[in-house]
Amino acid sequence: MILDTQLLYGLVGIFLFSLGLSSAFASSALLRRILAINVAGAGLFLLLIAVAYRGPEINPDPLPHALVLTGIVVAFSATALALALVKRLRETDDD
Amino acid sequence: MTEILAALLVTLGLAFFIAGSIGLLRLPDLYSRLHALTKADNVGLGLLVMGLALLTDDPFIALKLVLIWLLVMAASSASAHLIAQRARRRERGT
Amino acid sequence: MTDVVWGLLDLLLILALLALAWGSLNSRNLQRAVIYFIGFGLLLALVWVRLRAPDIALAEAAIGAGLTGALLLAALRDASHSPDHTDRPDRAWRLNPVPTLLSLGLAVALGLAYLQALEIADPQRLAVAVFSHLEQSGVSNPVTAVLLNFRAYDTLLELAVLLTALLGIMALGQARPAYAQAGPVLAGLVQWLTPLLILVSAYLLWIGAHAPGGAFQAGALLAGAGVLLRLAGFPDSHFPAALILRGMVIAGVSLFLAVGLVLMLVGRGFLDYPPAWAGGLILLIETAATLGIAATLMLAFLGGRPAAWSLDTSTTGRIQAADMVRHNTGDNP
Fold it and tell me: What is chain C's percent helix, strand, coil content, to nearest 5?
């Protein structure tokens, strides 16, 4: 049952990752690409946390948790940087 | 006894949530949807919080649950107000 | 019976998660796509709770859904102000065979590797190492112990990554214009919420030593308070003076480094805390990191340099004026 939960969420994570990745390649609008990369990142986070899960009785592995925690913050700052680049690009185009 | 009461409160709370969600899906326009969603969900969450507070022995946790309820009420009424105000301005075309 | 209930919950969570992800990737209306993404982040926080990762659930709700959502909506607002913007829904995507096949191949490879990894007999090794040394770490929350003690080096570099991203953003131009002054309802709510958010943030920072919480969640919450102030139209979110603001931005990295170097000077390894001091040192570093993360995330949300960033007072007035332009258009009570 524990293995099933790990398997289920892990595979959903991998699916989200590949969905986000292919969508990032397929869309042309920059904002959509940023959105898609965020979805792909969330999929990888899900995979890591699924690996860490040990069932309802045993404490989960804290290492992937620490990784994902910092990952979420880095993902935000990378998104903010990407959006600032998009904004700059638009400002340059307007001139 | 406490557990039965808690289960009843939580179930009742969920009934309000379901009513709110049906309202969101079925009601005709934005204002009545907002009305259904915020009112039903706030009452539902209140009942849920009461039920859960009964189940804990720690008064600090119970207080935290009540704080969550108050915060959600404040936030949801403010956001309902903002959404309605914006929709109204759009209708007036300003 | 319990298994069936959990299975049902898992199924519902996953279906909703996939539906929201699909919506955010395929919705023809970009604004709707962003809203779907915010919903996706909130649901993901529930998934983290389900998988027993409450530390991450807190961070996801505050950052993944809250701050990222606000940031994307602000970026959307830029886009709608740009002259080449049209309200015509754009084609969400065009399927390109090569990258799609590559992504699929990568997914299959990852899936196979994952299946293999699950079959390894003893997946507990690193976790066992963490739990057996937890008592010497100075804190009892294993995630905090990993972040600030066992892998403190990684966290220091991660803070440096944050700082680098922020420097990039600051170099790209000026902040988005400030928002119009909000009406009494939002302004009142924000005025009530801000002190409470500061209090909760301090609570999260303190409790992180032995329960879910810590510098990242506390910093994100504090940044959220700043973003709310900005959205409600308070000028410059009550930023401190430029020097203090810049000091806050580098507070986390510099204090972290200082602690590491001092420990080297007294003959220990870099960031190798003496066990008796570990708890205090971790709290010290986390306090500085909270301020640093809060300032960084808040400034990153602005998308450029705000007036308060400038050290040069001769230009401050001019920028401030530009920053204030949008101010008096709101509905003052």
Answer: 75, 0, 25
Domain residue spans of chain B: 2-92
Question: Measured between alpha carbons, how far is C205 from A62 in angstroms, rounded to an integer?
Answer: 18
Question: Does residue A78 contact residue A71 with C-beta atoms inside 8 Å?
Answer: no
Chain A residues with CB-CB distance to C99 below 8 A: 21-22, 25-26
Buried b (16+ CB within 10 A) or exposed e, C36-46: bbbbbbbbbbb
Q: How far is C154 from chain A (nearest CA, A)?
A: 9
Q: For residue A92, count CB atoms less than 10 angstroms from its CB and return exposed for 0-12, middle for 13-18, buried for 19 or more.
A: exposed
Q: Which two tokens stand for residue C286?
A: 């986390």
Are the beta carbons of A37 and A16 closer than 8 angstroms?
Answer: no
Nearest to C206 by CA among C290, C323, C317, C88: C290
> A47 and C53 in contact (C-beta within 8 Å)?
no
The C-alpha atoms of residue C194 and residue C226 are separated, in whole angstroms, by 8
Give the sign of the dihedral formed by CA C261, CA C263, CA C264, CA C270.
negative
Each of the 333 residues of chain C gets a pLDDT tens digit; together they read: 778 888 899 999 999 999 999 999 988 888 999 999 999 999 999 999 999 999 999 999 999 889 999 999 999 988 776 655 544 445 555 667 888 888 889 999 999 988 888 877 565 677 888 888 888 888 999 999 999 999 899 999 999 999 999 999 999 988 888 888 888 899 999 999 999 999 999 999 999 998 999 999 999 999 999 999 998 888 655 678 888 989 999 999 999 999 999 999 998 888 889 988 899 999 999 999 999 999 999 999 998 888 888 877 555 444 454 454 444 444 433
Q: Which of C320, C326, C185, C321 is nearest to C239 (CA)?
A: C320
**In the CATH hierarchy, which top-level class contains the domain A2-94?**
mainly alpha
Distance, in Å, from the CA atom of C183 to the CA atom of B78, rounded to the nearest integer, reads: 11
Contact C100 A19 (CB under 8 A): no
Interface test with C, best of B71, B76, B90, B92 (most C CBs within 10 A): B71
Question: Cα torsion for C265, C268, C272, C278, to the nearest 10°?
Answer: -80
d(CA C185, nearest CA chain B) in Å: 6
DSSP letters, C68-132, are HHHHHHHHHHHHHHSTT---SPPP-----HHHHHHHHHHHHHHHHHHHHHHH-S-TTHHHHHHHH
In this prediction, the answer to ipTM > 0.90 reads yes
Q: Is C3 on the interface with A (CB under 8 A)?
A: yes
d(CA C293, CA C307) in angstroms, rounded, equals 20
Residue length of chain C: 333
What pTM did the predictor assign? Answer: 0.90
